[in-house]
């Protein structure tokens, strides 16, 4: 079975997306950043097929703290297990330097990456997502993990790519 890993900065909505895709509320979702620290595993069923999905803690850029090192190590383990990467960014906060650090990290994996632009809750935000084009990903999706917006497109396109390349 193929595996997808969800990565991104702290508090961009990775766990909310995980919960939405698995159809369960197995992950804690909290406004305070840094709640998820380990890898959390789930399964997603789509069009009669299943794939594994891994949620990870928020990526720390250039942190030397013991907790930051441990969380980043868990993210690296998740990336190593994955066949496909969901790189989640926050449309409300816009492109951040940490996003660029994560971009460099996921590109090193040489695995397919989908850019998931989360927190698309209103038309104004949709119109301001062009700044994420700077990251250079050909496959990107605009979603709202909380409201469930855009997941039909994500799942359909995702399943097609998983079927063609991974399953």
Question: How would you characterize the overall build of this protein?
Answer:
The chain has 167 residues and is of the alpha/beta class. The protein has one domain (3-165): Rossmann fold. The protein is built from 5 helices and 6 strands. The protein has helices spanning 14-22, 66-81, 97-108, 123-126, 151-165; strands spanning 3-8, 40-46, 49-55, 84-90, 113-118, 140-142. Strands 2-3-1-4-5-6 form a 6-stranded mixed beta sheet, with helices on both faces. It is globular and about 40 Å long. The model is unreliable at 163-167 (pLDDT under 50).
Descriptive keywords:
167 residues; alpha/beta; Rossmann fold; six-stranded mixed β-sheet; 5 helices; globular; disordered C terminus
């Amino acid at each position: 079975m193929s595996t997808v890993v969800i990565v991104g900065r702290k508090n961009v909505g990775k766990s909310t997306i995980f919960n939405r895709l698995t159809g369960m509320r197995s992950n804690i979702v909290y406004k305070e950043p840094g709640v998820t620290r380990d890898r959390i595993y789930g399964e997603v069923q789509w069009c009669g097929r299943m794939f594994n999905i891994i949620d990870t803690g928020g990526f720390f850029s250039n942190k030397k703290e013991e907790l930051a090192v441990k969380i980043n190590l868990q993210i690296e383990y998740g990336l190593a297990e994955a066949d496909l990467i969901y790189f989640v960014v926050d449309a409300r906060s816009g492109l951040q330097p940490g996003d660029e650090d994560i971009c460099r990290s996921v590109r090193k994996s040489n695995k397919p990456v989908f850019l998931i632009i989360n927190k698309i809750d209103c038309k104004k935000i949709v119109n301001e997502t062009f700044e994420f084009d700077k990251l250079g990903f050909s496959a990107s999706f605009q979603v709202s993990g909380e409201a469930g917006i855009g997941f039909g497109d994500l799942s359909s396109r995702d399943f097609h790519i998983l079927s063609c390349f991974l399953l």
